[in-house]
Specification:
Layout: E1 2-3, H1 8-19, H2 23-27, H3 35-43, H4 48-73, H5 82-90, H6 92-97, H7 104-119, H8 123-136, H9 141-153, H10 157-170, H11 172-175, H12 183-192, H13 199-209, H14 213-226, H15 228-235, E2 241-242, E3 245-247, H16 248-276, H17 284-304, H18 316-335
Parallel strand pairs: 1-3
Antiparallel strand pairs: 2-3
Length: 336
């Protein structure tokens, strides 16, 4: 028997769309990051089938921007394999996110479109994507805003952006009181799990209380986010069973994490190569922009928030594009 096909959040957003009749009521409700998903439910009038169609359309548009991003990199688009194009569409987690109105697919589209328009210097379109993104997750204003500032005022964009992130990580204990990220979710999880002391709690303590060392804790948390369900499955295979039934949701997350494992390793390799000065790219400007954008997203979203791989989903097409371009350029160099 199977269970958990739908993420409970979408049912909550659907109930909000039925209870409130205006967007202004949503802003004043005190609920965070609900406006975007609720508006989508209102657009389809609460119809689950139409929502699946709308999500499929957003995936298609995301792939359209994804292809054009690779074109902007300068590599021969004919060398890109079909499976690389379709990876995000056939990812089991994507199929789960298509069931109802959630934040993942809309922000995937908006983040991918934002980066594409930044490459084309279409600032009006970037502003639109920025504004719509914060309706789904207001914290996205931080990485998108820092990216714009770095891109406009620094010549060595990637190194400048990375150093800014290092500085922010080192002083994170001084910023934690701002409560921008999901500390409440963390506290709720700790209470539900009995409040015992584990590695995760120790990492959080260092991140939240010890400056300088907090940088290492943030990087550790990023790695946890990248490989969350692989780690969880290896330490406790029983996570796939809920109430005596197989959890389709957990299975989808585990399989997706395994599929994305080489993607994340390639991304880490690209970042380390750039920091070491050994990276070779035909289009250095593109790769610097892509790495900057991805790092500014992955570190704060993956390192400052509560552990959940869903939070990194919106940046996946940029990370995949980095891997594709890096791989094609490396193969071309080896032929010379």
């Amino acid at each position: 028997a199977l269970t958990r096909l739908i993420i409970p959040d979408t049912v909550y957003y659907l109930s909000l769309s039925r209870d409130w009749n205006s967007i202004s009521a949503l802003f004043g409700s005190g609920s965070k990051n609900v406006v975007g998903p609720v508006v989508l439910w209102k657009i389809v009038d609460g119809n689950w089938y139409l929502m699946v169609v709308l999500n499929a359309l957003m995936i298609w548009l995301s792939l359209y921007y994804f292809r054009n991003i690779i074109v902007q990199s300068g590599v021969d688009i004919r060398l890109v394999k079909n499976r690389d194009y379709l990876l995000i569409a056939i990812l089991p987690a994507t199929l789960i996110y298509m069931m109802g109105s959630l934040k993942e697919i809309p922000t995937l589209l908006l983040i991918t479109a934002f980066f594409y328009y930044s490459l084309r210097h279409k600032y009006w379109a970037m502003i639109v994507c920025f504004g719509l993104s914060v309706l789904f997750r207001f914290q996205l204003a931080i990485p998108l805003g820092i990216y714009l500032v770095v891109k406009m005022f620094f010549s060595e964009k990637f190194l400048a952006g990375f150093l800014i992130m290092v500085l922010v990580c080192c002083v994170y204990p001084l910023l934690g009181s701002l409560n921008i990220f999901a500390s409440s979710a963390t506290q709720a999880y700790r209470l539900e799990s009995g409040g015992g002391i584990g590695i995760g709690q120790l990492v959080e303590y260092v991140r939240d209380n010890i400056p300088i060392l907090s940088f290492g804790a943030v990087l550790f948390r990023v790695m946890q986010n990248m490989f969350e369900y692989i780690i969880a499955f290896l330490t406790n295979p029983g996570i796939m069973i809920e109430s005596g039934k197989l959890s389709v949701l957990v299975i989808a997350y585990v399989v997706s994490n395994i599929v994305l494992l080489p993607i994340w390793f390639q991304f880490i390799r690209s970042v380390m190569s750039r920091l070491a000065g050994t990276a070779q790219s035909v289009n250095r400007g593109f790769m610097d922009d892509a790495l900057l954008f991805a790092v500014l997203f992955v570190i704060p979203v993956g390192g400052f928030s509560f552990i959940h791989q869903r939070y990194l989903y919106p940046i996946l097409l940029i990370v995949i594009a980095i891997g594709i371009v890096d791989k094609i350029e490396r193969q071309q160099r080896e032929k010379i």
